[in-house]
């Protein structure tokens, strides 16, 4: 431990990692609060919100993909000292994120019942989820701007700002959840709709805080004028590097949502149990995702400074930390399990599912930790986003999703066995991911010289 404290690399990564971990912890906390509060409304409410929230999960993966694409370029250009390039990348990313957010918002307003039918054929769940989606559409629009701006801040090392904004938004979300779910302080008792109102309101406040931070920032401004800045080379690089990252996270996110589709067509009890399992897994994953994001930022800055050997050594250190983090995450899940089983208001069948799901997640988290750190953190820091896309297309859509449908609807295996088979996906891709890491092919300086000598339009 003394060696970790004295090593400059570990000092830097912990400085970046701790605020990111806190932010991830807060996000996990607000999701758990939704489930805990809806626990008093009913099992159908939990299941409906869980299924409807799959669209938010997919949208999060889109924004996360754009954000990591932003980080790939901005971290390296920040390491190089080119802030004009950082601003231009921000504008390009905003064009994409705002367009995608608008599309999701339009779908949620115009066809929420159709969106719900993809996940379930239960009329009660469809009705509850459709109302939730309509209200949440406003939050989608704000979210697209927030995620890009916070990604740029993280790429230049200002991770504490994002954590502070997220803390305020999460606190407001929790407070408004209680107010509108239970009808406190004279407010209407809205139940499921109350969750959507709270989430959308907190997104609006978080966006306003982003503008407040921007006004006081010396180097990273949130300006819609950046939407109109054009640079052919940076646009080309953004498409080449960020699009595979975006598609990778969407492929993974949609594939993971298909797990909920499979469980949703098995039983409402399976969906409710999975809702609790996801919340607990998110708590266990906080450390792992913090390490992956912090490692990606630090390695990207090293590579942008052309310190490639230091970046290679740093990647090895990040991986070691991840293995430790995955083990600790598994212990966290095991430690939380008795409390979840004691207080969850579920049927006996759903409780049986939940007990097994939590046990599976206690080791499943290690598979995700290693893959996330290498694919999202290390590989993308070096500008390699294509490998992860190809890997997850094969793993999710050639292996895991078909296996899940086959096990559930052809073999008609019990719910727990279907869930167990779905949770083999992360371990199946380990051999290829580790081999690619050892090859060193991911390590590249992707910055350019003379970007603004001949301005042009993409």
User: SSE order in H/E notation?
Assistant: HHHHHHHHHHHHHHHH
Distance between the termini: 50 Å
Poorly predicted regions are: none
Structural domains: how many: 1
Q: Outline, from the CA principal axes? A: globular
Number of helices, where a helix is a run of at least 4 consecutive DSSP H or I residues:
16
Q: Structural class per helix/strand content?
A: mainly alpha
Based on CA atoms alone, the radius of gyration comes out at: 21 Å
Bin the helical content: over 70%
Kindly state the mean pLDDT as a whole number? Answer: 86
Strand % is: under 5%
* Quaternary structure: single chain
How many E-type strands? Answer: 0
Largest sheet: none
Topology:
Layout: H1 2-6, H2 8-38, H3 43-80, H4 83-110, H5 112-117, H6 123-155, H7 159-182, H8 192-216, H9 232-264, H10 268-304, H11 308-343, H12 348-381, H13 386-410, H14 415-422, H15 425-428, H16 430-439
Helix pairs in contact: 2-7, 2-10, 3-4, 3-6, 3-9, 3-10, 4-6, 6-7, 6-8, 7-8, 9-13, 10-11, 10-12, 11-12, 12-14, 12-16, 13-14
Task: Report on the architecture of this protein.
The chain is mainly alpha-helical. The chain has one domain. The protein has helices at 2-6, 8-38, 43-80, 83-110, 112-117, 123-155, 159-182, 192-216, 232-264, 268-304, 308-343, 348-381, 386-410, 415-422, 425-428, 430-439.
């Amino acid at each position: 431990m003394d060696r970790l404290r004295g090593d400059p690399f570990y000092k830097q990564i912990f400085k970046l990692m701790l605020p990111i971990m806190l932010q991830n912890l807060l996000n996990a906390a607000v999701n758990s609060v939704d489930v805990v509060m809806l626990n008093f409304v009913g099992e159908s409410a939990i299941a409906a919100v869980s299924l409807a929230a799959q669209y938010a999960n997919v949208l999060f993966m889109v924004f996360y993909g754009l954000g990591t694409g932003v980080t790939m370029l901005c971290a390296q250009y920040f390491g190089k000292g080119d802030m004009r390039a950082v601003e231009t990348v921000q504008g390009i990313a905003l064009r994409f994120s705002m367009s995608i957010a608008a599309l999701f918002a339009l779908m949620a307003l115009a066809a929420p019942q159709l969106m719900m039918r993809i996940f379930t054929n239960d009329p009660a769940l469809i009705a509850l989820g459709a109302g939730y989606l309509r209200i949440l559409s406003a939050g989608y629009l704000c979210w697209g701007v927030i995620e890009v701006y916070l990604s740029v801040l993280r790429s230049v090392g200002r991770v504490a700002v994002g954590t502070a904004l997220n803390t305020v938004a999460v606190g407001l979300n929790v407070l408004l959840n209680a107010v509108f779910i239970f009808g406190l302080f004279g407010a209407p008792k809205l139940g499921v709709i109350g969750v959507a109102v709270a989430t959308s309101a907190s997104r609006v406040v978080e966006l306003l805080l982003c503008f407040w931070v921007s006004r006081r920032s010396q180097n990273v401004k949130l300006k819609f004028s950046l939407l109109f800045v054009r640079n052919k080379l940076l646009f080309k690089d953004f498409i080449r590097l960020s699009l595979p990252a975006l598609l990778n996270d969407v492929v993974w996110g949609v594939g993971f949502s298909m797990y909920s589709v499979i469980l949703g067509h098995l039983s409402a009890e399976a969906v409710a149990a999975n809702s609790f399992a996801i919340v607990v897994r998110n708590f266990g994953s906080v450390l792992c995702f913090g390490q992956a994001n912090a490692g990606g930022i630090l390695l990207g800055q090293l590579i942008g400074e052309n310190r490639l050997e230091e970046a290679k050594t740093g990647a090895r250190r990040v991986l070691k930390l991840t293995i430790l983090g995955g083990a600790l995450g598994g212990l966290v899940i095991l430690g939380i399990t008795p409390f979840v089983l004691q207080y969850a208001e579920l049927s006996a069948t759903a409780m049986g599912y939940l007990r097994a799901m939590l046990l599976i997640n206690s080791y499943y988290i290690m598979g995700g930790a290693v893959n996330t750190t290498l694919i999202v953190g290390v590989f993308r820091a070096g500008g390699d986003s294509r490998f992860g896309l190809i890997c997850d297309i094969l793993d999710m859509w050639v292996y895991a999703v078909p296996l899940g449908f086959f096990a559930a609807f052809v073999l008609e295996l019990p719910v727990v066995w279907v869930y167990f088979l779905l949770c083999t996906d992360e371990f199946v891709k380990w051999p290829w991911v580790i081999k690619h890491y050892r090859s060193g092919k991911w390590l590249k300086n992707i910055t350019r010289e003379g970007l603004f000598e001949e301005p042009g339009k993409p």
